[in-house]
Amino acid sequence: MPYSPKFQIAGGGKLPYNVFDGENIKNKLLSMAKRLDNNSGYGISQTGRRLPAPKSPPTVVKYGDHYVRWKRKKVLKPNVVYSTKQGYSYTTDHYGRIVKVEASDLKYGEVKRNQYAQSNSG
Q1: Which stretches within the chain are classed as H helix?
Q2: Of 1, 78, 69, whose CA–CA distance to 40 is shortest?
Q3: Which one of 22, 60, 69, 71 is least enclosed by Cβ atoms within 10 Å?
Q4: What is the pTM of this model?
């Protein structure tokens, strides 16, 4: 009976030999590092909360560029000013919270409700 070593990870089943190929491990580690680098959450505290960006004057960005992904959710970027299609202007602070809204002509209108957002609010 020939001996062929089987590798095993704690809590997992037996792994095939090609999982331990050096090229696969290298590529996997590089892709994980890229994902961590692309996470522009402005730092994460020890408890997992998002840390604020440094205080700076707000920069003007296009509508749609005012979001950043953090923990797979879209959140507002800190220190930005953006305008909507209706002409409303929003300013965010260093935490990404809206602190100022400018609307010269506020118009009320009917909007289709987002059922997913309604069920997850509050």
Answers
A1: 22-38, 115-120
A2: 69
A3: 22
A4: 0.51
Neighbour-count burial of 96, counting CB atoms closer than 10 A to its CB (0-12 exposed, 13-18 middle, 19+ buried): buried
Judged by DSSP in three states, 83 sits in strand
Domain residue limits at 57: 7-108
Q: Which two tokens stand for residue 52?
A: 């604020």
Helix (H) or strand (E) holding 110: none
In a domain, 115, yes or no: no
Q: Would residue 121 count as lying in a domain?
A: no
Quick one: pLDDT at residue 101?
93
User: 43-72, pLDDT tens digit by residue?
Assistant: 666 666 777 787 788 889 888 888 888 778
Whole-number Å distance between alpha carbons of 76 and 66:
6
For the chain, what is the domain count?
Answer: 1
Nearest of 37, 35, 92, 102 to residue 67 by alpha carbon: 92
